[in-house]
Amino acid sequence: MQANGHDLHPALRYWLIQLPGLLLIGVLASIAASFGLIDASTAVLLFLLWLVKDLVLYPVFIRTEGLHYPMGRDALIGAQAEVVRPIEPEGSGQVRVHGELWQARSVDGRRFGSGQLVEIFGVDGLTLFVKPIPQQQVNR
Fold first, then answer.
1. Exposure class string for 29-53: b at 16+ Cβ within 10 A, else e
2. Around 47, how many Cα atoms within 13 Å sit in the side-chain half-sphere?
3. What's the pLDDT at 73?
4. pLDDT exceeds cutoff 90 at 84
5. Whether this model's pTM surpasses 0.85
6. Residue 55: helix, strand or coil by DSSP?
7. Within 13 Å and on the Cβ side, how many CA atoms surround 77?
8. CA distances (Å), 12 to each of 25, 31, 52, 65, 137, in order?
9. N or C terminus: fewer CB in 10 A for the chain?
10. Helices 40-65 and 10-34: crossing angle, nearest 10°?
């Protein structure tokens, strides 16, 4: 088993996630019943309602299981950026991507002028490495 649990079957992963809540509601309902705060049938009903809630939410979990929302570096690589300050062959410039300004350098030493669209090829710290975009692939 891997540390992130992604090698487990989705159903098993879901029930392992739900288990603490299910145990908690069972213990709390039992304690409440033992102190006479609720009767035993109400405690069982609460537990069963909690279990039904988990069964109803299972299809939602399965639908979203394979979705991946890129964040950080993954969200930047492959994105298009607009050159704000020209990128010189041996220096850096500035680009705007996802509404943010970043330092940028050319991957292959090309010059990019202001307003030109480039593709982000890599990230090193706070510097993006960019390359030209073929005109047919420009998304505006």
1. beeebeeeeeeeeebeebbeebeee
2. 19
3. 81
4. yes
5. no
6. helix
7. 10
8. 20, 28, 17, 12, 42
9. C
10. 160
